[in-house]
Amino acid sequence: MLSDMLLVSAPGKVILHGEHAVVHGKVALAVALNLRTFLRLQPLSNGKVSLNLPNIGIKRHWDVTRLHSLDLSFLEKGDATVPTPEQVEKLTEVADVPADCAVTERLAVLAFLYLYLSVFRKQRALPSLDIVVWSELPTGAGLGSSAAYSVCLAAALLTACEQIPNPLKDGDGISRWAEEDLELINKWAFQGERIIHGNPSGVDNAVSTWGGVLRYQQGQSVSLKRPPSLKILLTNTKVPRSTKALVAGVRSRLLKFPEIVNPLLTSIDAIALECERVLGEMEAEPTPEQYLVLEELIDMNQHHLNALGVGHATLDRLCQVTRSHGLYSKLTGAGGGGCGITLLKPDVQRQVVEATKQALTGCGFDCWETSIGSPGVSMHLASLLDAPIRQALDIL
Ligand code: MEV
User: Fold this and answer.
1) 84-143 pLDDT, tens digit each
2) Structural domain 6-225+375-392, CATH architecture
3) Which residue owns the Cα nearest ligand 1 atom 8?
4) What pLDDT does 173 receive?
5) Partners of residue 372 on adjacent β-strands
6) Is the CB of 29 under 6 A from ligand 1?
7) What is the pTM of this model?
8) Test site for ligand 1: of 16, 17, 22, most ligand atoms within 8 A of the Cβ
9) For all residues of the chain together, what is the average pLDDT?
10) CATH code 3.30.230.10 region(s) in the chain
């Protein structure tokens, strides 16, 4: 067990194409955002393991001796798709969360306990730790906040118990793990995501682990070698929604109308592949024609997602507003509210971007300009983190 403080970060994501279809085995193209989640892990000797999530007001601790005395053999039961509902139920007893605790808070606590207990169970003793996780990402907006949380937890816990090495060498400000360590981080992060979302595809944790631009299909991720640096407007409609419920809605529409919904999923798959092909060609010198293709793909996919039943009046509004300024948008993530992305072509005029942002803000949305393709999970040196992040993580 390491004795040093660990500082880990992982990015959120946007899905360019393939949300929902990816749950049914199709391709998703996902990119890491330059909005990140940060985690500080501090070994303690007070006999407690504590979790502090300032964004959602969670501060809880457990007695390590009590956790030790419990029968945790249920963690080993189940098949490849663990955690099972029975395991989650047992975990809820262990976590001892108050009955009135909101779902998001309860699931965040359960995902933490699952990873902490599972990762350290094979060791002689459960360690006493203080963990703070703080995020630049809004929760429940489709930007992969839960995946970034699970990836940070998996990376920090696996490093603390020395299942993977600390990649930070003397003098480094920021460092990344080797490929086989990233595989292990991703595997455990997926388990955390399963606690939170039930049966996710795994694309969110994969892009948060590897960063950059990823093609993801059925558990396999391939990083795009030299993707163009795309600029987007990211808009949060601030309409809350549940990924689990939206995924279930698409599944029931697929079961009810397989002849209608299957072709939609196949078409979304083709859109993702075409987008990947165009991005590959844009490596050299992006042309205006290639941007036109990207816009058309965005437009077609947005209509398909509406047909799958994951649209929302606010997302329609977002698309109309950006269209009236000559820009194309689609929802990103689970839909039903949450966030949308708008492609910003390199030649778009500054006043057009400003006018669009103003119009979107006027609709009550939060809107920010960002680039995509940030690095995946990373280890940081405390002294080189920006002051606001140090403050949020309570680093003196
Ligand atoms: C969520 O970011 C994307 C969905 O496709 C769900 C998933 O892939 O697990 C809606």
Assistant:
1) 888 888 888 888 888 778 888 899 999 999 999 999 987 778 999 999 999 999 888 889
2) 2-Layer Sandwich (3.30)
3) 201
4) 83
5) 33
6) no
7) 0.92
8) 22
9) 92
10) 6-225+375-392
239: pLDDT strictly greater than 80:
yes
Query: Where is mean pLDDT largest: 48-52, 65-69, 95-99?
Result: 48-52
Residue range(s) occupied by CATH 3.30.70.890 in the chain: 230-372
Q: 230-372 architecture in CATH?
A: 2-Layer Sandwich (3.30)
Atom of ligand 1 nearest to the CA of 334: 10
Average pLDDT over residues 256-284: 95
